[in-house]
Write a structure and sequence with these properties.
The protein is an alpha+beta fold. It contains four helices and five strands, in the order ααβαββββα. A hairpin with a 2-residue loop joins strand 2 and strand 3.
Length: 123
């Protein structure tokens, strides 16, 4: 299984499947987190995932690719309350598990999409 396949399976099972019991299948115990609102380690990430899945996310992947041990995922994240976020996650994998994470999130993009000054779309 490629690193990209591992990340896509993680999104399928956890982010879209909301199966928080599978986090340890994909994440290393010494997981390094670069989002300042999420704690390091498997336990910290588990807390975040339980909170995040409680918002009923649906992640529609626009693009995913890998270079060596790095995988990036660009996706549209629609929450149960209707809020749409534009997200880019980047992971470093080690021994077949997520070892490190960076992200960029643009929150509530629906109005921004309507107010666009060009016709390129945000996706």
């Amino acid at each position: 299984m490629s690193n990209k396949d591992i990340v896509l399976a993680f999104y399928r099972d956890v982010f879209n499947g909301h199966d928080t019991s599978k986090v340890a299948d994909y994440v290393r115990p010494d997981y390094i987190q670069h989002n300042p609102t999420v704690e390091d380690g498997l336990e910290g990430f588990q807390k975040f995932i339980e909170f995040f899945c409680g918002m009923g996310p649906k992640c529609d992947i626009i693009r995913c690719d890998e270079v060596g041990d790095m995988v990036y995922v660009f996706f549209r994240c629609t929450l149960a309350n209707g809020m749409v976020n534009k997200v880019m996650d980047m992971y470093r994998l080690e021994d077949g598990k997520l070892a490190e994470h960076w992200d960029v999130v643009e929150h509530d993009v629906a109005q921004k999409e309507k107010d666009a000054v060009n016709q390129n779309g945000i996706w």
